[in-house]
Amino acid sequence: MWEPGENIDLKSATILNKKEGTLYYTNKRLAWVIKDSSKVTITIPFNQIKNQQVSTQESSRIKLRLTVNSSKGTDLIYTFEWIESSKEVAKNERDSFKNAIAVKISQVRQSALARSESSNSSNLLARKNEAATSVQQSSRKKVKLSRQDIKLRTMVLEQNPDLALLHKNLVLNGLVDEEEFWSSRENILADYRIQLSMKKGEGAEWVDLAPEMQDNGNYKYTITPEIAKSIFKQYPEIKNAYIENVPNKISEKEFWRRFLASQYFNRNRVKRSALAERDSIFDECMENEDKYLNSGGDVANKGFQLGPLLDLTRTEEDHPTTGNEKDITMQPGRDKESLSLIRRFNRHSELVLQSISKARNGKSDSIANAIIIEDLKKHDQNRGILLNLKDTKSYFNLPESTTESEELGEDELIQILESSKKSLHSISGKLSFDVDSAVFESTMQQLNASILKKTSKFDSNITLESLIGDADLAKKIQILYAESFELSRHFWILVKPPSNAFKTQKLKSVYDKIQVTKSKVDEALEANKSNDSVQTILKRISLGYDSIAQMYKSFSQLKHVI
């Protein structure tokens, strides 16, 4: 069903054309498989997806609609509806598909644009400057993203709706390249990369697994795949029993029903333990676990090796007459009822310690790190930052000092002294400055009153929506502002020297895209002449565009970049 090298990143149970199935997102395509089928029913290549739409927030159904190019000339519409019982879970799964598809569509479009631009411009640049062509072709090389990078960018877009909207308006519409969009957000990607690299602990939802009361008076437990995975990891005996019995002997539903009714599950619940049913499968699991814990667990059966630097028994024979006397008051097993529970807690602690030790260095490395004292190691002397001199000639050639010095005569020195005396005697009046306190206080009060009057007009709680008075218009203005800021940032980065043929061509492309956004700003200015707040905001954006136009005109007149 799957091609060689194809990996499944996302999957969800959906309905398409009133038929149930599973929607898959892989590294090569979108695939939908009808229920109880082993073959892919519908394949949607990423390069054929024109656009995607999602249902509104108020809609009771969670949907994703894809418009796909067809070889017949007409567009195909696929509407997938999520059948997850929880609306929040379904929405999260739908948004994961939406953001992942958006990243893929952007990559496909940018790669196609790069191929077309490189083919159209290579001939022109080759006639002008062969070296400039090689620079452009190397700069236009497509960056291949790993699955981890795609997952990272998808997660960032999912958790930042404003950034996802900006990505949609700029990248998916072809105004900014995918790599350029993310180049200025490396710090965000770095933060999320750290979150992905963190090893999360196992969830404890199944420990407090509570039943739901149904209308008929029965109880209902919900065991999700995550809860089942946690149970298997905590209790390997249950995992072995599951493998041996499901689905050959009993169904999965029956297995979990018997598990929840068994003494194995209810042994730590005093009220339910007496009412729990006897079960051949789980009674055997409980006996095996008790034998395992009574025999010492991992330490005895699996040859658990304690570190030689921590194992006190390694040097016990060297000093038999020293040390502390054994405490006979602490005897294990005195409380039989809690002994089994304590051993299970100890086993859980062993599993936690083992999971941490696996992530550390090897055995020899851990011993070396323990016996090497960092303070006694020889450290290279910090030589600081080396001074890189490009022009040493001008540095070492000091200005020549002249041995000839002009000395003032005695008459000239006397003349200078007399002139200074006359200047000092001519000073009259007070050298201090007295301030009238009443005038000073009155002036300060007036200044403070003026400042308070101006600042009182501004409220930190004022939003753009309340300032403009229209939610839809405020959203439109916000999008225009974000697009203008992003395009302006790219423009000023490209116009900064040094320049080359690729940057010149890219600058022209960005400037053309700025003109498209500027036309939107002009239309909004024309349509909202009566709204002073909108006029103030958009006119400030227009001033930025005027500066860009003036700079681009000056840049185009430079002969060395034409």
UniProtKB/TrEMBL annotation:
<keyword id="KW-0804">Transcription</keyword>
<dbReference type="Pfam" id="PF08567">
    <property type="entry name" value="PH_TFIIH"/>
</dbReference>
<comment type="similarity">
    <text>Belongs to the TFB1 family.</text>
</comment>
<keyword id="KW-0805">Transcription regulation</keyword>
<dbReference type="InterPro" id="IPR035925">
    <property type="entry name" value="BSD_dom_sf"/>
</dbReference>
<protein>
    <submittedName>
        <fullName>General transcription factor IIH subunit 1</fullName>
    </submittedName>
</protein>
<dbReference type="InterPro" id="IPR005607">
    <property type="entry name" value="BSD_dom"/>
</dbReference>
<feature type="region of interest" description="Disordered">
    <location>
        <begin position="119"/>
        <end position="140"/>
    </location>
</feature>
<dbReference type="GO" id="GO:0006289">
    <property type="term" value="P:nucleotide-excision repair"/>
</dbReference>
<dbReference type="InterPro" id="IPR013876">
    <property type="entry name" value="TFIIH_BTF_p62_N"/>
</dbReference>
<keyword id="KW-0539">Nucleus</keyword>
<dbReference type="GO" id="GO:0000439">
    <property type="term" value="C:transcription factor TFIIH core complex"/>
</dbReference>
<feature type="domain" description="BSD">
    <location>
        <begin position="137"/>
        <end position="193"/>
    </location>
</feature>
<feature type="domain" description="BSD">
    <location>
        <begin position="215"/>
        <end position="267"/>
    </location>
</feature>
<feature type="region of interest" description="Disordered">
    <location>
        <begin position="314"/>
        <end position="333"/>
    </location>
</feature>
<dbReference type="Pfam" id="PF03909">
    <property type="entry name" value="BSD"/>
</dbReference>
<dbReference type="InterPro" id="IPR011993">
    <property type="entry name" value="PH-like_dom_sf"/>
</dbReference>
<dbReference type="GO" id="GO:0006351">
    <property type="term" value="P:DNA-templated transcription"/>
</dbReference>
<keyword id="KW-0677">Repeat</keyword>
<dbReference type="InterPro" id="IPR027079">
    <property type="entry name" value="Tfb1/GTF2H1"/>
</dbReference>
